[in-house]
Design a protein that fits this description.
With 317 residues, this protein is an alpha/beta fold. The chain has two domains: 215 residues, Rossmann fold (3-Layer(aba) Sandwich), CATH 3.40.50.300; 75 residues, Alpha-Beta Plaits (2-Layer Sandwich). 36% of the residues lie in helices and 27% in strands. The chain has eleven helices and 14 strands. The strands form three sheets. The protein has a six-stranded mixed beta sheet with strand order 6-7-8-3-9-10, with helices on both faces. The chain has a four-stranded antiparallel beta sheet with strand order 2-1-4-5, covered by helices on one side. The protein has a four-stranded antiparallel beta sheet with strand order 12-13-11-14. Helix 3 crosses helix 4 and helix 8 packs across helix 11. The longest helix is centred in the middle third of the chain and has 16 residues. The radius of gyration is 24 Å and the shape is elongated. The two termini are 34 Å apart.
C-alpha cells in the first residue's frame, strides 16, 4: 500500500528532517510510526499525503507515485491530523456533509454514509450540536470518522489518543481494530507506547530522520531488550564508579538514571535474558563491592524500554 524509497528532505536553513528513509506498509496492515520529537515522523506523513515534496526519493501509495497522481492518491487516503482541524461553528452533521461534498461522495449514498459514521463515532444524538460544544474525545472521534467518510483504503492517524479520556481512547482503539478486519491499511504516529503495543502489527522507529529499528512489538522487545528488565535503587557509588564500571563488574548492560532527587541514591535499569538468576547475582556482586541495594524489582520489558534503548533516554532540543 505504501512504498517509501530513499526519502530525504532538507528544510530551509539546512535542517535535515529525513535522511535516506526507506520502508513499506503492506495492504491491510497496521503500522506504528515511532520516534522522539523532531525525529521526522510528521515530515514523513506529510510526504505520504502529498502535503510537501521530498528533496529526493519517492513515495508510492497503492502503486501511484504521490506527486504525479495527487488527486487519485488523496481519494485513497483519509487523514486524522494531530490537530483535529474542525470548524467549531458547524455541527457534526454539517461537518460530514461538507467533507462529503469535497471528496465527491455520491449523493445517493451520502446520507446513509454520514448516518453510519455518526453512529460509529457515537455522535448520532449530538449530530445537530455545534462542534465547539463537544468534549476533546468527541472531537477526536468526529475527526476519525471524517477521515473514513469517503471510504478511504489507507488511514493515517496522527496522535489519535492525544488529550482524550480513557473511554474515548478505548472506543477509537476498538474502531481501529474493526477497520483492520475490514481490510483497511492504517499507519499511525504515537508517543503512547501502550497504544503502539496494543494496535500495531509492525513498528517503524525513526530517529534523526533515519530508520533505526523495524519489526513487530514482540520481536523488537526480544531483539533490543531481552526477556527481563531488572530495576535497582542503591547507595554507595563513588564518583569514579560510573555506568561502564558497573556494567563491567556485573557482566550485564546497565543504564544509570541521569538525575535523582537524592544525590546519594542511584537508580539503574539492567537488561537480562535470565532475570531469576541474574537478579540475586547482581545484588550479591554489588554488596561485595560495598554498594547497598535499597530496592530491587524485575519485570517484563515494555515498548518504552525498547524505545529508550534505541533512541536514548536523554532529553533533546
Amino acid at each position: 500500500m505504501i512504498e517509501i524509497d530513499h526519502l530525504s528532505h532538507v528544510y530551509k536553513g539546512g535542517i535535515k528532517a529525513l535522511d535516506d528513509l526507506s520502508f513499506s506498509v503492506e495492504e491491510g496492515e497496521i503500522l506504528g510510526l515511532l520516534g522522539p520529537n523532531g525525529a521526522g515522523k510528521s515530515t514523513c506523513v506529510k510526504m505520504i499525503t502529498g502535503a510537501i515534496r521530498p528533496s529526493c526519493g519517492s513515495v508510492r501509495v497503492s502503486g501511484y507515485e504521490v506527486f504525479r497522481n495527487l488527486r487519485k492518491v488523496r481519494h485513497i487516503i483519509g487523514v486524522m491530523p494531530q490537530e483535529t482541524a474542525l470548524y467549531q461553528d458547524l455541527t457534526a452533521q454539517e461537518t460530514l456533509e461538507y467533507h462529503a461534498d469535497i471528496y465527491g461522495v455520491p449523493r445517493e449514498v451520502r446520507d446513509d454514509r454520514i448516518a453510519e459514521m455518526l453512529k460509529l463515532a457515537g455522535l448520532s444524538l449530538r449530530k445537530d450540536d455545534l462542534v465547539k460544544t463537544y468534549s476533546g474525545g468527541m472531537k477526536r472521534r468526529l475527526a476519525l470518522v471524517r477521515a473514513l467518510l469517503h471510504d478511504s483504503k489507507l488511514l493515517i492517524l496522527d496522535e489519535m489518543s492525544l488529550g482524550i479520556d480513557v473511554q474515548s481512547r478505548n472506543l477509537i482503539w476498538q474502531q481501529v481494530k474493526m477497520l483492520k478486519k475490514e481490510g483497511k491499511t492504517i499507519i499511525f504516529c504515537t508517543n503512547y507506547m501502550d497504544e503502539a503495543d496494543e494496535l500495531a502489527d509492525r513498528l517503524v522507529i525513526i530517529d534523526r530522520g533515519r530508520l533505526v529499528a523495524e519489526g513487530s512489538p514482540q520481536s523488537l522487545k526480544k531483539t533490543h531488550v531481552g526477556n527481563f528488565i531488572i530495576e535497582l535503587e542503591f547507595r554507595g557509588l563513588t564518583d569514579e564508579q560510573d555506568q561502564s564500571w558497573i556494567s563491567e563488574q556485573i557482566g550485564l548492560e546497565v543504564e544509570l538514571a541521569s538525575e535523582n532527587e537524592d544525590p546519594g541514591i542511584q537508580t539503574a535499569r539492567i537488561q537480562s535474558e535470565d532475570g531469576y538468576n541474574d537478579l540475586p547475582q547482581v545484588i550479591r556482586i554489588l554488596s561485595n563491592l560495598g554498594i547497598t541495594v535499597r530496592q530491587a524489582s524485575m519485570r517484563s520489558p515494555s515498548l518504552g524500554d525498547v524505545f529508550l534503548t534505541i533512541t536514548g533516554s536523554k532529553l533533546r532540543d
